[in-house]
Amino acid sequence: MGTGTGAGTGAHAGRKSTWAVGGSFFAGILMLVVGATDILQGVAGIRKDAFLHSSNAYAYNFNLTSWGWIHLGIGVLIALVGIGILARVPMARYLGIGIAALNLVAQFMYLPYQPVWAVVGMALSAFIIWALATDRDRVTPRASRY
């Protein structure tokens, strides 16, 4: 016989975490913002703008045009998945975690070219991954919540 104590047995077990739900919505908005900025980074790389620093002694040394196309592609994907998250498409959550992880790795490899923005991009991607991974009730339909 259990005493009713332990994880998931209290009155709070059925409640949804407001922080995680707000975080998921914010993650969708951030995905749109990160997607837009990645697209802008991509365009700057394709045009070989002067604000990008070129590095010759780096293990992941691509030319700026290659980085431009990489960021443009990732930016479009992030923005599209962000729209899916805001539209409450259940599969978008998993795609969002994957594409944010891909963006985190791409931003890490992009450090020598734009170090400050790469760190900001990695932090935003890490928050997006956390927010989407902690929202367990995301798959419930809207009508059943009321």
Task: Please characterize this protein's 3D structure.
This protein has helices spanning 18-47, 64-86, 90-109, 115-134. The chain is mainly alpha-helical. The two termini are 34 Å apart. The mean pLDDT is 80.
Largest sheet: none
Separation of the first and last Cα atoms? 34 Å
The count of helical stretches stands at 4
Overall number of strands: 0
% residues in beta strands: under 5%
Order of helices and strands: HHHH
Average pLDDT taken over every residue = 80
- Helix/strand structural class: mainly alpha
Evaluate the radius of gyration. Answer: 19 Å
Helix content: 55-70%
Low-confidence stretches: none
Q: Which outline best applies?
A: elongated
Q: Which labels suit this protein?
A:
mainly alpha; 64% helix; single chain; 146 residues; 0% strand
